[in-house]
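thoughts on these tokens:
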Amino acid sequence: MDASALGKLLSPDGWALLGTLPPYDESRTMAISERLRAGGFDPELVAAALTQSRLRARARGKFADFADGMLFTEAGLEQATRFMVAALHAQRFAAAGIDAVADLTTGIGGDSMAMAALGLRVLGFELDELTAAIATVNLRHFPDAEVRYGDGLGVDLLAEGISGVFADPSRRTRGGTRLFDPNSYAPPLADVLALRATLPALGIKVGPGIAHADLPADAETQWISVDGDVVEAGLWFGPLAPDGPGRTALVIRAGTAVSARRAARPEPVPIGSPGAYLYEPDGAVIRSGLVEVVASEVSGRLLDRTIAYVTSDALVPTALATGYRVQDVMPFGLKRLRTYLREHDVGRLTIKKRGTAVVPEQLRRQLDLSGSQESTVVLTRVAGAQMMLIVSPLGTSHPD
């Protein structure tokens, strides 16, 4: 969508058209387009409205019902923070007593909306003129939110009355390739970090794959997962990190959030053989290096010092990991596994792996299963040895 299409979409007739489109259905798009054009609607307006209808349908996964009143770009939606997580960002600023926030990378305005919804004054900046215009539309209900087309790093934020800063640097090239070097972000991480010298209340969203070596020592770095999907890592400084620097994880499942943080003096985690239960820590827990927190919570042990699987002899439910009941344990071997699964009439197999070079798709073809039962196998190392654990997710039955 270009500026011309946006202008037509924002006209009274264009906005009314967008509001009357039926729920997006790709199979009906061509017919709707032809009908609207035959009815005299501008082809550019029709294309823009149908594109927004498609993006709104996709955006509901991040913005729920809010998506129905928003505009999007493809790139802006891809990078936008889920509104649930953006609300957590905003709550940090509000809890710290920050009343005016500069959003240096407003994008389509998701984080700015969450902050404005909590009553914070928001000054957003966006380097792409079309995206800045879209963010302005999305923030239209908040009189204390302003979006400027330009670079916030070149603005005297203190003179603007700003007391906190948030940034979500772009982590992709123009071609869509992910960037893992923080100083290849746009803007570079180092340039944003420099702001904390004058504005200590600084929050920066970074990629969840960021290396621990690239984490500032004075930041609380928090990894967040939503329903099993690690969605971001965030760097929080000064009053936005009230418990001080360190690595934390926030696990959100079915709308409930549970946090994890390393103890001041963590106990060494023992290594041992598989017990009756196996725990697969959530991805945010693994990325933050806090598998030991799961082990402590379930009074468990690691199968291997370098593998993020925890085992215990007694069941201890935890929101920080997915639990399995261990049915059998055996050394790794294709023939052994095939025989076991056929004896147990297994035809549908979930393959989980960690610390092994086995390719699940290739292994599944080699097993050539045709039974009626379903099972799960975990391929991993136990004290350095390649092993197979037959497990069943807690709450499910297993083949006899």
Q: What stands out?
A: The longest strand covers residues 321-331. The longest helix spans residues 43-63. The chain is about 30% helix and 25% strand.
